[in-house]
Amino acid sequence: MASIIEITDFSAPELDVYARLTEGQLKNRAEPEKGLFIAESPKVIDRALDAGFEPVSLLMERKHVDGQAKGIVERCGDIPVYTSDLDVLTRLTGFQLTRGVLCAMRRRPVPTARKVCENARRIAVLEDIMNPTNLGAIFRSAAALNMDAVLLTPACCDPLYRRSVRVSMGTVFQIPWATIGQEIGDWPERGMEELRAMEFKTVAMALRDDSYNVDDPILAAQDKLAVVLGTEGDGLADRTIADCDFTVRIPMSHGVDSLNVAAASAVAFWQLGRQ
Can you give the pTM of this predicted structure? Predict the structure, then answer.
């Protein structure tokens, strides 16, 4: 049975995970086996629990203990539940809680790229995407629109950052993902070699005059496709585009030159994920 604890002291060390530790400190690169992340909102926490992640503690509005988070409290078993009114929690964390519930959870070892792709036919590869909101939105589209896995280059932000997890609506726990390469210098050369070794044809989403349209039949005919998307501002690196098998664009109208990477990912995944 959970232990319900009323917050009386903001400086209590057990609240550090919610109030004072940065995302990098939560990840704990020095000791990855001790890493944590924060899941926000009952639906997201439920999806993390469904995926087998271990809860450490909960922080929530008092009214939710026997309200909308009652099922979460019951599922989490014998862990501390820190509680107070919403304004107190907002001052403690520094942000407005989504649906008034946070859960600190233990990280798990990230599998290899080969492991998550061993039965995949359509995957997303994200190059240096550092905006957690965009990353979370791309994960949600990938899970919903028939991508089998997501690979991230080493310079991408962490899919388990609180904002990424929340924007993804917990789909980061539903679609397999891994990092392709360990060091920033591993991409694109070594990463592309690994994709080729796994027999993927690579699709660079880029605005080039010699691009294929995203609905070209030659793309649908490929047995295995890796859809490569680039950074929010500059798009894919020239070297990455040159190394890919196809360069693909989404036709634009009304003089619009491009879509945000999260919006572009949804269009590309919907079209290229159909098998």
Answer: 0.93
Tokens of 35: 């890493």
Helix H or strand E encompassing 247: strand 246-249
Average pLDDT over residues 189-194: 96
Under 8 Å between Cβ of 159 and 168: yes
Q: Which two tokens stand for residue 260?
A: 């945000």
- The pLDDT tens digits for 77-108 are 999 999 999 889 999 998 877 778 999 999 99
- Residue 240 CA to residue 206 CA, distance in Å, equals 10
What's the confidence (pLDDT) of residue 164?
97
Question: What whole-number distance in Å separates Cα of residue 260 and Cα of residue 251?
Answer: 14
DSSP 8-state symbol, 235: B
> How far apart are the C-alpha atoms of 24 and 12, rounded to whole Å?
21
Within 59-122, residue ranges assigned H as helices are 70-76, 86-93, 113-117
| Omega before 32 within 30 of 0, i.e. cis | no
Only one residue has tokens 């070594």, namely 190
